[in-house]
Specification:
Blueprint: E1 10-15, H1 25-41, E2 46-49, H2 63-73, E3 78-85, H3 91-104, E4 109-114, H4 121-128, H5 138-149, E5 170-174, H6 177-186, E6 190-192, H7 201-211, E7 223-231, H8 235-254, H9 273-282, E8 286-289, H10 291-305, E9 309-313, H11 319-334
Parallel strand pairs: 1-2, 1-9, 2-3, 3-4, 4-5, 5-6, 6-7, 7-8, 7-9
Length: 339
């Protein structure tokens, strides 16, 4: 796939369009565009949005719309989904939407696919209706999507217009070993959600690499790892900023979600020992620190995992601090020892 560089560890961004305390989704979208423009200048490879629903602190529910907004405001960075939760949609609709995006922004659109609902079960029922078993059809739906994109589908009775005949890279997203086997069998690039599900990461990428079957889309296995990054000028400042990230994951663990909270001097009054343990387990692949610590930790991670690409997601309350964090992350991965 021409969209995948192989000569160095590429670096990219996952954006949930997090809504911070005191602001609105509109603010989040404008901040996303500013970040994407900076990312393009800093050599980031791709900028993805994740589909989530019914979460007051996450505004990336209309994922395809945001992809168009960011692609329209940039010129070269790849833009896509990390991912579209395919069981929430008919494959034909996804093919048409991403066919439209790829027609508007040729050579720049990625389609990452996941099978989770991107929300709670009640919300999933509201989205899927009678189709609540759609997740079990995920492998078949990926194949249906591939068929809609193929030029050979031009003689079929149901066609994706636009979409048919376009080269839109499909990725399999996952947080378990099931997704690794599927990505390997289909010969597709694999993006792992190690930013919130670190437990099976090493096992999953090992399964993927061992079982990978070359395809027309990809000749060698390609692993993208998503991780949390909070970088600042000093380790102490980064740890302080990271308390917003920890509060965000507290909402995931307890089910009591809030808008992204400002950083605090200490988390002791916010969580108990069990909540702390649960949050820190989820944050197993997090890179928090100043420039030197970031370089050392990232080098160790790359040495251990041999990933082809690292995608950073950064829940930082202050927008300028978030922009600076992504600048430091790019600089850490551009040093000679990491390329």
């Amino acid at each position: 796939m021409s969209s995948i560089p192989s000569h160095h560890t590429a670096y990219s961004i996952l954006d949930l369009a997090a809504v911070v305390e005191g602001e609105t989704p509109a603010n989040s979208f404008h901040h996303s565009l500013e970040l994407a423009k900076q990312a393009e200048q800093l050599g980031y490879n791709r900028y993805w949005f994740a589909e989530h629903h019914n979460m007051e602190n996450v505004a990336s529910s209309a994922t395809a719309v945001l992809i168009g907004y960011i692609a329209g405001g940039t010129t070269s960075i790849r833009v896509g989904s990390g991912g579209i939760m395919l069981p929430n949609h008919a494959p034909l609709i996804v093919a048409e939407q991403f066919g439209t995006l790829a027609s508007l922004y040729p050579g720049r659109i990625d389609l990452g696919l996941g099978r989770a609902p991107g929300s709670d079960q009640l919300t999933a029922m509201a989205i899927r209706g009678e189709n609540m078993q759609a997740a079990y059809q995920f492998p078949q739906d990926v194949q249906r999507l591939q068929n809609f994109f193929s030029a050979e589908n031009s003689t079929a009775k149901v066609r994706a217009i636009p979409g048919e005949g376009l080269d839109i890279p499909i990725w399999i997203l996952g947080s378990s070993t099931d997704s690794a086997r599927l990505a390997a069998t289909m010969g597709l690039p694999y993006a792992f959600a190690s930013h919130f599900a670190p437990a099976q990461f090493l096992t999953a990428i090992n399964i993927y690499r061992k079982n990978f079957q070359p395809s027309a889309h990809l000749q060698q296995p390609y692993v993208l790892a998503c991780v949390n990054v909070v970088a600042a000028d000093t380790d102490n400042e980064a740890e302080y900023l990271a308390t917003s990230l920890k509060q965000f994951f507290m909402g995931v663990v307890t089910g009591k979600r809030k808008l992204l909270q400002p950083p605090v001097e200490s988390m002791e009054s916010i969580w108990n020992i069990y909540e702390e343990e649960a949050v820190m387990q989820m944050l197993g692949y997090s890179f928090i620190g100043g420039p030197e610590k970031l370089k050392i930790d990232l080098q160790a991670f790359i040495n251990q995992t041999q990933v082809d690409e690292i995608m950073a997601t950064s829940h930082i309350y202050n927008h300028q601090a978030r922009l600076h964090s992504y600048q430091l992350f790019a600089e850490a991965l551009r040093v000679p020892s990491l390329v």
